[in-house]
Structures are given as structure tokens and as C-alpha cells.
Design goal:
- With 109 residues, the chain is of the alpha+beta class.
- 19% of the residues are buried.
- The model has no long low-confidence stretch (mean pLDDT 84).
- A hairpin with a 5-residue loop joins strand 8 (99-100) and strand 9.
- The strands form 2 sheets. It has a 6-stranded mixed beta sheet. A 3-stranded mixed beta sheet has the order 1-6-7.
- It has helices at residues 6-18, 71-74, and strands at 3-4, 25-32, 38-45, 53-57, 63-67, 78-82, 89-93, 99-100, 106-108.
- It has a single domain (3-108), classed as Hypothetical Protein Aq_1857, Chain: A, CATH 2.60.300.
């Protein structure tokens, strides 16, 4: 299960409207990198859902997709968004992370 807070859903929806990609899905994944070993990546995927994707429908119809092979790293993830000047942006709360970096964008299992 992947969860987005209300503020994260609102920000993704705003960005999708700004980029004129209202039909895209939000793709969340992980890749090697960052100061803790794995880092999150997010992007709008105008191609939609692909074979091998797990789909998590959010309020307002926003769809978040994760490749099933990466779901073991992200299951239970909550994505939040903050407008604070210091430390603002998307934030990740991952119950699978044994350790996270200070900026919150990378983690170690």
C-alpha cells in the first residue's frame, strides 16, 4: 500500500495541471544512490499503467503506480508535502527503512 497525504495529492494534482498532463499517473520507485544506499524517484508517466505495475488509487482519482519488483522497498510508504521554506517539498515516511538520510530522500533497509 502506498499512501499520499491530502497535501501531497493536492500538490501532485497542481503539478499535473501546470504541466498539462492530467491523465498521467504518478510513478514512484527506488534506485541505487543517495547517502544511505537507495533513493526515491518520482515522475509523471503519461503512458499510464504498465504490465507488472501495482496501482494505488488516491483521493480525487489520482493513481500512484509502483513496479511490483520494487514494492518490497516501498510497501507502507506515506508521501507528504510541505510548503515550509526550510525542509519543504515531498517527504517520505517508509516503515521498511532502517535508516534515512537527513534530507529524507534516501534510505537503507
Amino acid at each position: 500500500m502506498i499512501n499520499l497525504t491530502e497535501t501531497a495529492v493536492a500538490e501532485f494534482s497542481r503539478l499535473m495541471q501546470d504541466q498539462e498532463t492530467p491523465e498521467a499517473v504518478v510513478r514512484i520507485g527506488v534506485e541505487t544512490g543517495g547517502c544511505s544506499g537507495l533513493q526515491y524517484n518520482m515522475d509523471f508517466d503519461p503512458g499510464g499503467v504498465a504490465d507488472g505495475d501495482e496501482v494505488f488509487e488516491q483521493p480525487g482519482g489520482l493513481k500512484v503506480v509502483v513496479d511490483r519488483e520494487q514494492l518490497m522497498y516501498l510497501d507502507g510508504l506515506t508521501v507528504d508535502f510541505s510548503t515550509k521554506l526550510m525542509g519543504g517539498g515531498f517527504r517520505f515516511e517508509n516503515p521498511n527503512a532502517a535508516r534515512s538520510c537527513g534530507c529524507g530522500t534516501s534510505f537503507k533497509l
